[in-house]
Amino acid sequence: MNYRNEQKKKSLELLNGFIDDPGNGSFKGKKYPFVLKHPELNLWDKIRDEAKAYFKDNSIPWWNETDEGPTGHMQSSQVSCVNHLFFLRNNQDMATSILKNIDNRIESAIKIDYPDKTAGYVAFEIVGKENYLHEKQHSRGANATSVDALMLGKKYDGKNELFVIEWKYTENYEMNHSLYIPQRSMYLNLLERFDSPIVMPMDNEQPFEPLYYEPFYQLMRQTLLAWQMVKAGEYDCDEYVNLHVIPKANKELRLRNTSPGLRFKGKDLRSVWRSVLLKPERYVMISPDELMEPLQDTKDARSLIDYLQRRYW
Known about the structure:
Layout: H1 3-19, E1 25-27, E2 30-32, H2 48-57, H3 77-85, H4 92-102, E3 106-110, E4 123-126, E5 147-155, E6 160-167, H5 188-191, H6 216-231, E7 237-245, H7 251-254, H8 269-275, E8 283-286, H9 288-292, H10 302-311
Parallel strand pairs: 6-7, 7-8
Antiparallel strand pairs: 1-2, 3-5, 4-5, 5-6
């Protein structure tokens, strides 16, 4: 049984006594046993109302374009990201401990003062202040390159570091067709620059075409976005780290190379992606429990950790 099916089975076990929902909710017009009939129950009750208000106040669509709140799909990575990180929005100590675990040069987490109406230590569905990638749309959470979450840390040298977070849950990608089409060639202008953070051999007519296979296509766009945000001086940051949060047990995603053109680079996602980066250390793959490990013994986070352990870990 693969990881996705294991999690579907686990979801059914959580319906009674933990989520308290009968399941068989609707997803894309069909009913599934692992989809909640009451979608708001997909969010942890301690953050539920505040998270729904945050998305509404900042005009951020939920995954699957639900208007009133989160999807009822229990394998939603967006919901998983919010359940893990939203509690940190108003707690500097917790946010700081998370970032220090990634980079020991961090002195403290700092609040993100835009684009949210209310500043916090975590922001969700961020697309950057400007349309750096020259995409057709520039809107949070839909139809534009965005990162699932963003955090900021002040280093001991007084400069800020940008932490862009891409959250995965049960996703996996097969080796299929390239997503490269002329309409997506706008990224080449950045990829071909002498200071691009992504380096590829220039030995064919379309040297960057191997990057147009998921999940590399998404990582490529997010890397370019983070790079451009730093170059533009957003949040006074002088460097960035791309955190790729993937459960350890999701081997279908972690241990697969989906791009034929990158076969010689390695067999697993981490090694392949780091091989095309000018500075590989700026990409960190980490599991959700590893990311949250600094909070394991924090009294104020005990209820959060208990929820996450039972729900996800």
